[in-house]
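Changelog entry: the Fucolectin-5 record was regenerated in this release. Current contents:
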Amino acid sequence: MLLFQIFPCPWFLISFLVPCYGSLQPGFSKLQRGHRLDRKLIQSFTEVSFLDCVIECLVTPRCKSVNYFKGANFCEINYENKTTAETRYMESAGWVYSEKGHWPKELAGACSNSTCDINQTCKHKRYSMDKFCECVLSDCGIPDQNGIDLSKTRREDAIGIHRRIHALCADGYSQSGSGRLICQSNGEWKYDIVCTVLPNIASHKPAAQSSTQNKYNASYAVDGNRGTNVGVDKCAHTADGDMNPWWRVDLQDVYKVSSVRILNRGKDQYNTGYNNVTPAR
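Regenerated structure tokens:
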């Protein structure tokens, strides 16, 4: 009944699909209604059925899951699933989420045993006497240029051919360019972003603080160790009871400062952490 509701078709076609492809019941029984995976998109397709959406994933080696919006017959294939991208799995009315491994690979037809590369997709080849399918480029892969932060991409961003991504530079980098990445037809990214490492002008400069807890002196704040466990990483620490704590560093020159980054003490074996630190002007 479920198959008939989603894909209106004659009963003889339903009975034909099941013997040929095996049972589709495991896939339908594991559908996650009202959910989708966000911002892990390879490509999207319009005016396709749910099974066609699943097949697009089956013939694309990088694909791990699909989102499908039945009201618009809209399909999204993803390069992650809810296990590998748990924080991106969310409730979303009208959507259905499904994973590649829940469906028989025979649905892919001649492409079920293809040897396409990870950045390719298998296409059925019509009117050919020598072979039934061919591998064509599907995407540009995950951008890996140094310093790029992909955690704030937009909902519509995708890594598929002719798609684009909006990126930022990670903390500790300065950015030039619009931040747009375009996946070209040759499977390579066109970057309009350059991330340059910001020099740490405070590194190993003379430092002082209002008081010192045990041996955690001011110089530990500029020793180059970015760890935040005070006992393991040796962080600067003012004394308990210091009612007006401060810390300072002598840069020993005049600089135009573009940013100040403070790594506060993190959670440790004492279950202690600090925040609300304000740099002096």
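DSSP finds five helices and 14 strands in the chain.
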